[in-house]
Amino acid sequence: EDTPLLAGIDKPPRKLSSRLKTFANVFIAIVGAGVLGLPYTFMRTGWVASLFMVFFVAALTYHGMMLLVATRRKIQDSPACSFHNIASFGDLGFAVCGSIGRFAVDFMVLLSQAGFCVGYLIFIGNTLGNLSAPNPNPKIWGVSAKAVYIWSCFPFQLGLNAIPSLTLLAPLSIFADALDLGAMGVVMIEDLFIFLKRTPSVEAFGTVSTFFYGLGVAVYSFEGIGMVLPLESEMKDRSKFGKILAITMSFIAAMFGGFGALGYFAYGDNTKEIITANMGTGLLSTLVQLGLCINLFFTLPLMMNPVYEVCERRFRSGRYSIWMRWMLVLIVVLVALFVPSFADFLSLVGSSTCCVLGFVLPALFHYLTFKDEMNLKQATADVSVIVLGLSLGVSGTWYSLLEIFSVKV
Fold it and tell me: What are the Amino acid transporter transmembrane domain coordinates in residue numbering (predicted)?
């Protein structure tokens, strides 16, 4: 209820975001570790095909985000609406489809967020392993260096993930984002200098299987669909949200395209699955890679928070449970130990969960909400996005699994 309990006493006004702050918040919500796998994806898929994929996925993700915004506005503006506070993707799923809608969103959010965290640990383990022993299969005391570093993170992550409040984690988020942007800038500058010195041969297009593989990585890179409704709610002038979101997505797509292309143009067929591994072992390279590892180390508890919210709400009636959190951290660590490839795992998560979250569910919720007033063209557009999202998800998941298991054989 929004009515004050005591007459004459109003709630303190909520501070809303300006256009610039909304731009920054959307940028931070979307840009993550997936960008580090883009140069390798450009190598596998071809630079022309990859640029097409990046801008295509950006446009489709923007479309899905705006469908969520339009659906919430329609429901809340309806005179018969009983949902006056749709604050999240899960709330919207419940308003449109009841418990089934909330379960579908919760399940996909749980898989995708946990998948992001698995990718973070794989990156940390592989990067620190390569820094400590730069050879194909680095070992420490006879044990895989990747496993040693991932297990080294485990006790510290138990402590960080025991923190119950996102407010307390906010300084870590700001610190991590600053490291991420700084490291990306350094990598792009170094790629540019290397490209100007030499011009390795590059391919414009790959095969059909690599196309779907790369599509999964591109979808993963545009993470953040779950944040669009809270960010729109916090904007001072909501009528401008669509324009600001379009500008931000265009900027991010151009940055991702430039980052992926520069990395591939600099190293050609020698581009590694984590682009920082191409930078050698100098002081600058080491600092950049350590900075990215620190960034992901402190970002992991933030990305796990939606997982805790879903599990504690469903199994603990919303009550904080440290044992459940620690068990989930252990599961994430164990999965990270058995997945060999960072880029392959990005593709799997992007195809299997992010396609459903970013494309299928927004179009489905929009269709169910507006179906009584849609014309044939509008209905066809929503159904087409649903079919396209499912097709891309199934194809990308299949090819990603083939890649993962082919590495193990």
Answer: 17-400
> Which amino acid is residue 68, in one-letter code?
L
pLDDT band at 13 (very low <50, low <70, confident <90, very high): low
Cβ contact 309:369 at 8 Å: no
Q: Kindly state the average pLDDT of the residues 304-328.
A: 86
Question: What's the predicted TM-score (pTM) here?
Answer: 0.80
Q: How far apart are CA 132 and CA 140, in angstroms?
A: 9
Angle at which helix 376-408 crosses helix 208-221, to 10 degrees, equals 110
How does the average pLDDT of the chain come out, rounded? 81
Q: Tell me which residue of 157, 122, 108 sits closest to 307, measured CA to CA.
A: 108
20 token code pair: 């610039």
The single-letter DSSP state of residue 143 is E
Count of beta carbons in the 10 Å neighbourhood of residue 93? 24
Cβ(311)–Cβ(107) below 8 Å? no
Tokens of 288: 């950049």
* Residue of 112, 113, 116, 117 lying closest to 355 (CA atoms): 112
pLDDT in tens, 112-126: 888 888 888 988 888
Domains plus CATH for the chain?
19-403 (1.20.1740.10)
Mean pLDDT along residues 376-396: 90
d(CA 111, CA 322): 20
pLDDT at 9 (0 to 100)? 43
Residue partners of 127: CB distance under 8 A and separation at least 6:
274, 276, 277, 289, 292, 293
Rounded Cα distance, 294 and 290, in Å: 6
- Is the CB of residue 237 less than 8 Å from the CB of residue 19? yes
